[in-house]
Amino acid sequence: MIGKFRAAALALAVLTPPAASAELPPSPFKDAYIEGAAYLRTVMPPGEGTRLEGAALYLLGNIAATLFHDFGHALKSELQLPIVAAHESAADSFAHVVMVARVDDPALDLMVRTVAESYFIDGRLRETDPLADNALGAHAMSDHRAHAVICMLVGSDPLLFKASADRAAMTPEVRAACKAEYADSLAAWGYLLQPHLLGDTDEGGGAFTIAYDPPQPGFEAIAKFLQASGIVEAAAGELQGMIRLPHDLNLRIANCGKAEASWQPRTRTIVFCYETALAYSQTAMDLTEATLATSAP
Ligand SMILES: [Zn+2]
User: Fold this and answer.
1) Does residue 224 lie within any of the structural domains?
2) What is the distance in A from the centroid of ligand 1 to the CA of 263?
3) Sequence-separated (6 or more) residues with CB below 8 Å from residue 248
């Protein structure tokens, strides 16, 4: 599995030109980037240079986006938020509005951008979401969902996400419409979350208890990547530092038997599966360097 993990990392490394991590301001996501890349350096052959930083950004970005999506589900039930849209769309909207707008962190922006740029190659959806196989197909990365995600991101910052919009072949009219749509989403989430936001002097609310199950054979390397990077702790810390959670929540990294991530309201637990993180690296092997050579920005 380490071999596969390594091959995936190599293929991904050409996606996004890595930023010099030294230029990023201090943050838990920057630390996750540095530590995640440092771990990859120990499992990749020497001489790969800075290309592995692109791989680290892609993996961390997908993991963070999945966690924030499930934070959206958790907040809907914990804060009893009224949601008009389909729950999956609302969770996506929460994840992207919060990751891009509320969290002022260039390291996180870089991760989100890397994920967004990977959705489309030459205007065609590149289907690689491991969560698409789950029982209800609720998280399937359909063409529609991918466009919705990119629309939110492009609406927030047309320049930062220009490459994503270009790859999705978005017209200028669509980009302009996305700007308005993003503004509406931002205002709606601001309205819904305002009563629950923590002020600087607040003592805080509930906190996450994070637990890693011992990884089953085959998941050792991805488990080490998760723990070494601290990406789960960074994402959880962001949410509990932003929102006054009415109860303590659990976040469990587990062996599930399939790629999945879910919010389980009865036990107030978010389960993030090792299979999901590993699948993000395995499906990335579809991204051959030849494909990317024709579509790289
Ligand atoms: Zn969901």
Assistant:
1) no
2) 8
3) 206, 207, 208, 209, 268
The total of structural domains in the chain comes to 1
What is the distance in A from the centroid of ligand 1 to the CA of 142? Answer: 14
With beta carbons less than 8 A apart as the criterion, state whether 208 and 249 touch.
Answer: yes
Q: Is residue 192 part of a domain?
A: yes
The CA distances from residue 126 to 117, 129, 283, 291, in Å, are 10, 9, 10, 11
Q: Which domain holds residue 26?
A: 2-199+277-295
**C-alpha 151 to ligand 1 mean position (Å):** 18
Measure 139 CA to ligand 1 centroid, in angstroms: 6
Supply the pTM of this predicted model.
Answer: 0.85
Residue 57 lies in a domain: yes
Q: How far is the CA of 295 from the centre of ligand 1 (A)?
A: 30
CB atoms within 10 A of CB 297: 11
As a whole number of angstroms, the distance between CA 85 and CA 102 comes to 21
Q: Is 145 within the bounds of a domain?
A: yes
Q: 10-68, pLDDT tens digit by residue?
A: 344 445 445 556 678 889 999 999 999 888 888 766 655 556 777 788 889 999 999 99
Residue 280 has pLDDT above 90, yes or no: no
d(CA 197, CA 190): 9
